[in-house]
Amino acid sequence: MSIVFSIAAAMLMIAAVLTMATALRGPSTLDRLVALDVLIALCMCGLGVWTAFSLDSTVVPSIVALALLSFVGSVSIARFRVRDDQK
Q1: Closest C-alpha among 64, 60, 57, 63 to residue 44
Q2: How far apart are CA 34 and CA 70, in angstroms?
Q3: Using only C-alpha atoms, what is the Rg of the chain?
Q4: pLDDT in the model for residue 86
Q5: What is the pLDDT of residue 84?
Q6: What family is this protein classified in (predicted)?
Q7: What pLDDT is attached to residue 74?
Q8: pLDDT of residue 30
Q9: Whether the Cβ atoms of residue 36 and residue 23 lie closer than 8 Å to each other
Q10: pLDDT under 50 in the chain at which residues?
Q11: What residue spans of 1-87 are helical by DSSP H?
């Protein structure tokens, strides 16, 4: 069963690297915002994989906290964003 967890962790790491490349390359702030939301979701998935692998449920509150921070951050950036074409 640890092979399944290793494959899941490797896939999450590959997705995180690709997401970071998108966040660094993104032409607009909204592209970067979406990439950072995906990166936080990947972190939450990684914590979920670790929780399933270690059978330790003490990590679950941190997953909930990450979800809350991601939501609040996304809403606040989308609300107070300055247009990219303005200088």
Answers
A1: 63
A2: 11
A3: 16
A4: 59
A5: 61
A6: Belongs to the CPA3 antiporters (TC 2.A.63) subunit F family.
A7: 84
A8: 81
A9: yes
A10: none
A11: 2-25, 29-54, 60-79
pLDDT at residue 76, as a whole number:
84
**Residue 83 carries which DSSP code?**
P
Q: What tokens does 15 get?
A: 């997705």
How many CA within 13 A on the CB side of residue 53?
15
DSSP label at 58?
G
pTM of this prediction exceeds 0.90: no
For residue 59, how many C-alpha atoms fall within 13 Å in the half-sphere facing its CB? Answer: 14
Answer for the pair 32, 26: CB distance below 8 angstroms, yes or no: yes
Distance of CA 51 to the CA centre of its chain: 17
Amino acid present at 49 = V
Q: How many residues does the chain have?
A: 87
* φ and ψ of 65, to 5 deg: -65, -40
What does the pLDDT read at residue 29?
A: 79
**Residue 31: per-residue pLDDT:** 85
